Amino acid sequence: PNAPNTVLEVKNLHKHFGGVKAVNGIDFVVKEGDVAVLIGPNGSGKTTAINLLSGIYTPTDGEIVFAGGNIAGLKPSDITKKGIARTFQNIRLFPELTVLENVMIGSHTKGSVGIIGTLVGRRKGLMEDRTAANKALEALRFVGIERHQEQAKNLPYGQQRLVEIARALVSEPKLLLLDEPAAGMNAEETVKLVKLIKKLNQMGLTILLIEHDMSLVAEVATRAYVMDFGRKISEGDIQKVLNDPIVIQAYLGE
Ligand code: ADP
């Protein structure tokens, strides 16, 4: 078989906050079909890296090559349009809106309707909006959420995370970024999350995730990168990196 295509290539990426080199010259690739993981001790620069990839921060230096071009410094909405969707470590749902409405918001990121348009559109019953609703329902079915008309705030925490994943899926991403998806989940919810990540990946979705739960990481990762002090200190097969003395040392110093 042919070698898988490169979906994302990060080259010499930097993000400095004054004197703090949160990301200090990292390189990595994500190939089609990967569940790539970015791990490392607290403060090693993982969150900053994912915020650079999704356009929340502009890099100090370096390139982020995706979909045929350098996307470094583009706005988050333009990056979503190019095919990168993400979830957040701290859930960002609209608590008062229904689950369905929250997911429908994700499907309009490709067009110019925006969040307000989604809400107004729902009331006007636009055709385009029915399509969005169908897509949202499909995504919710896929992640296993049934209470579509419930206000988002009434769902258990673990299910709110799945709603966020559904919202990311309706933008039909080529690359899904998951920022600590298991944070705050109980053991049962984490098992379901692992199954979902595997199912999404089997369907062909390429995923990059940051995660603290090493048992989850070990179960899903096809490729691992380890950061410490803004730099990449190890990479490769997950079992290999977890046994790398440099990585063990970095976590001991945490
Ligand atoms: P991780 O996600 O691996 O825990 P972060 O990317 O959050 O690491 O942080 C990396 C380093 O950058 C830390 O030293 C952190 O204090 C610093 N940092 C992160 N964001 C900012 C910011 N907005 N301003 C200043 N320093 C920051």
TrEMBL record:
Top-level taxon of origin: Bacteria
Keywords assigned by UniProt, alphabetized: ATP-binding, Nucleotide-binding, Transport
Stretches assigned to the ABC transporter domain: 8-254
Keyword Nucleotide-binding: yes
Gene Ontology MF terms in the entry: ATP binding
Name of the featured protein: ABC transporter ATP-binding protein
Species per Swiss-Prot/TrEMBL record: Fodinisporobacter ferrooxydans
Taxonomic lineage: Bacteria, Bacillati, Bacillota, Bacilli, Bacillales
